[in-house]
Amino acid sequence: MPDKNFEPRHLETLDRDLDRLSRLETASSFITRPLAAPAVAAVFILLTGLLAAVLVEGTSSTLVIVLAATIGAYMAVNIGANDVANNMGPAVGANVLTMGGAITIAIIFESAGALIAGGDVVSTVAKGIVSPASAESPEVFVKVMMAALFSAALWVNIATWIGAPVSTTHSVVGGVMGAGIAAAGFGAVNWPTISAIAASWVISPVLGGLIAAAFLWLIKARIIYQADKIAAARVWVPVLVGIMAGAFTAYLALKGLKKLIRIDFLSALGVGLVVGIAVWLILIPVIRRRARGLENRNKSLKTLFAIPLIVSAAFLSFAHGANDVANAVGPLAAIVSASTTGEFTSSIAIPLWVMLIGAFGISFGLFLFGPKLIRMVGNEITKLNPMRAFCVALSAAVTVIVASGLGLPVSSTHIAVGGIFGVGFFREWYAERRLRLARQDIPDLPAYSPNERRQRKLVRRAHAMTIAAAWVVTVPAAAILSGLLFLAIRLATG
Predict the structure, then answer these.
(1) SS3 labels along the chain
(2) Alpha carbon distance 155, 336 (integer Å)
(3) Residue 297 covered by a domain
(4) C-alpha separations of 215 from 220, 240, 335, 336, 385 in Å
(5) How many domains does the chain fold into?
(6) Does 20 reside within a domain?
(7) Cβ count within 10 A of residue 134
(8) Using one digit for the tens of pLDDT, what is the confidence trace for 227-265?
(9) Quick one: CA dihedral 17, 18, 21, 23, positive or negative?
(10) In Å, how far are 130, 168, 426 from 190, measured between CA atoms?
């Protein structure tokens, strides 16, 4: 029976209260969502510090190692947030992998690379950037490495925030250089090595872009613009995948498996050649079966490149985990060694628990913060499809091998992003070329206005400028941060 005391105004009041509550919940959700990822990352970093405290309990350097472990975890999270996007971005941008699939593959293969093939030996001064003799004592050396690691992590964090993929290895190099200069002056720095790193700012993206563009030209000329695309694909896709398999085999032999087996450049090429030929022969009947019944159009070609692109992304992640993770946690390993044994003038092995920090930190960083950079790399520089993304992935492996043979310093981050720019600029050039040829056949074809030409640009110039500026600034910015941090640490500790 209805309540006689209940009036319509009570219902209006209830609606208003419920509406306020709903708005409050929406606002609360909007505010807390951006804070969830940093909160989870902070918990991981704190747990890492507790783990380090348990592992080194009872030593005189427990506090130093715990602090270094937390900074190392912070660095690993930032690697996952930034560097891994270069491997997974093209596959996501080409719609071959979902964001969840890309993150899952990256976590598995980055961790596997770090734990299986990473961290055999790391120079205690980050690959010879600063002379070991410049450190007066283990205590000074620890302060240098602490400042270098923290400054590198801060810089990669800033770069992720502004949406610029940068090299974590270059960040560590800049950090070690800056702290070394603050500790012992400019004479402590190995300037030829710094010059080689500066050269890689140009060499890596240009070489990666040219090789990616060359493969895209091959695909366009031999497959896409053929009268019978499917027949052409049956011939050329096994060849291209064979090249990819051979290149990645040599790439992993040179860069990713140093802990398991030592192999020289010519031997790596030989193994890669054998694997490439074997994969080519195996794939000939496979591609024929997959191509059976496909329509003669570009959309059909995408299905033939999808699986090779996924495999290439996994291989890139494995190699990245084996190499870049060790470089990033190298300063942490150096701090542990110098603090516990006093040894800091020779190469040291990275302890398993330090590599675990790197592997798990990358996984957390990628899961929590990686999608932003993955979307930027995959979608916002230029439009990618499976063929173009395949060219980018293939160029990464081939460029490293070519650069290794020529003795040129390169960065995997710069190669991958340079490959994307190379593909985009090649598409612009190719479109202009086709237009010029069309005008020769149809002289009365109307010309594009300046505004129409701007709209037809296939590469976003703003991203190109932001990324290039971040690359150039990385070493000096990390060096300045590190130098200031070293001076602050020395002032605080005496």
Answers:
(1) CCCCCCCHHHHHHHHHHHHHHHHHHHHHHHHHHHHHHHHHHHHHHHHHHHHHHHHCCCCCCHHHHHHHHHHHHHHHHHHHHHCCHHHHHHHHHCCCCCHHHHHHHHHHHHHHHHHHHCCCCECCCCCCCECHHHCCCHHHHHHHHHHHHHHHHHHHHHHHHHCCCCCHHHHHHHHHHHHHHHHHCHHHECHHHHHHHHHHHHHHHHHHHHHHHHHHHHHHHHHHCCCCHHHHHHHHHHHHHHHHHHHHHHHHHHHHCCCCCCCCHHHHHHHHHHHHHHHHHHHHHHHHHHHCCCCCCHHHHHHHHHHHHHHHHHHHHHHHHHHHHHHHHHHHHHHHHHHHHCCCCCCECCCHHHHHHHHHHHHHHHHHHHHHHHHHHHHHCCCCCHHHHHHHHHHHHHHHHHHHHHCCCCCHHHHHHHHHHHHHHHHHHHHHHHHHHHHHHCCCCCCCCHHHHHHCCCCCHHHHHHHHHHHHHHHHHHHHHHHHHHHHHHHHHC
(2) 23
(3) yes
(4) 9, 9, 44, 45, 14
(5) 1
(6) no
(7) 18
(8) 999 999 999 999 999 998 998 888 777 765 666 677 788
(9) negative
(10) 6, 19, 38
Mean pLDDT, the chain, integer: 81
The CA-to-CA distance between both ends of the chain, in Å, stands at 81
Residue 417 CA, distance from chain mean position? 9
List the domain range (segments joined by +) for residue 150.
37-493
pLDDT digits (tens, 9 = 90+) for 89-116: 898 888 888 888 888 888 888 888 877 7
Q: What is the pLDDT of residue 9?
A: 52
Answer for the pair 41, 365: CB distance below 8 angstroms, yes or no.
Answer: yes
CA distances 262 to 256, 320, 460, Å, are: 10, 18, 42
* Structure token pair of residue 236: 């050329």
Instruction: Compute CA 209 distance to the chain's CA centroid, rounded to the nearest angstrom.
Output: 16
What is the residue type of 284? I
CB 421 within 8 A of CB 381: yes
Q: Tell me whether residue 208 is in a domain.
A: yes
Cα→Cα distances 347→122, 152, 289, 330, 334, Å: 6, 21, 52, 10, 9
Write the CB contacts of 14 (distance below 8 Å, at least 6 apart in sequence).
none
The CA distances from residue 60 to 54, 56, 301, in Å, are 13, 9, 63
User: What does the CA dihedral 394, 220, 238, 253 come to, rounded to 10 degrees?
Assistant: -10
**Structural domain contains residue 5:** no
Q: Which two tokens stand for residue 437?
A: 């040829």
Place of tokens 């930032």: 78
Has this prediction a pTM greater than 0.90? no
Query: The tokens 């950037």 sit on which residue?
Result: 129
Q: For 108-167, write each residue's pLDDT tens digit.
A: 888 888 777 666 555 545 556 777 666 667 888 888 889 999 999 999 999 988 888 888
Would you give the distance in Å from CA 34 to the centre of its chain? 23
Question: Would you state the pLDDT for residue 431?
Answer: 82
